[in-house]
Amino acid sequence: MAQKTSEEAHNEHNDTNSAVGKMKKELGPAGFVGMIAGLVIIVVTSAIFLLNYSKSNKNDSAQADMFQAQYYFEQDSLDLALNGDGRNLGFLSIIDIYGGTEAANLSNYYVGAIYLKEQKFQLALDHLKDFSSSEELIQARAYKLTGDAYMELGNFSDAASQYEKAASTADDDAFSPVYLLKASLAYEKQGDLKAAIKPLDDIIKNHFGTAEYASARKHKARLEGLAGS
């Protein structure tokens, strides 16, 4: 019985080789390679499609679960926004459960903002660093919050850098001058008065007529006096 099974397996192997050999002969070397390449493309394309489809469904579910957490955040119910209410997920659970989705990415922004309000500055940094957005004003706001966390931790150099990134990302009269004033203050706290003047020059040169323009001129004069003394 075992001998028969072995012979059958041998015959099946020969049949397979014969079929492959026949296909090679019919298609030719180039045609056979082309067929294999086509099969690989089909398999890879199908896998990518299924992966994207699964990710899209996951993100839709995450967006639906995040709705209540956003509501709590807007109502300043920060603990419920972070941890949920027993029926609805909070931002922390959304990050854990739906990692890799846009909802989890946005949840990092909310968690960073909440921890900043709660004066948990290192935790705020950890989450804000995990957030990124193609929406320029939102990303600029995230850089600004990151700068605020660094300021509270006494890291004035990184704070100034984040404020300057916020200003260049926003690149408008509504937000950039505010961020540039913060950058100047961070450099001043660091003790670098010359660097502190540069963001003020930016406001004076590029944001004339804004509410921050007069402040920039006043602080520049003050800093120049300190730098010259």
Automatic annotation (TrEMBL):
The keyword Membrane applies. InterPro entries: TPR-like_helical_dom_sf, TPR_rpt. The chain crosses the membrane at residues 30-51. TPR repeats lie at residues 140-173. It comes from the Bacteria. The keyword rRNA-binding does not apply. This is Uncharacterized protein. It comes from Roseivirga seohaensis subsp. aquiponti. The lineage of its organism: Bacteria, Pseudomonadati, Bacteroidota, Cytophagia, Cytophagales.
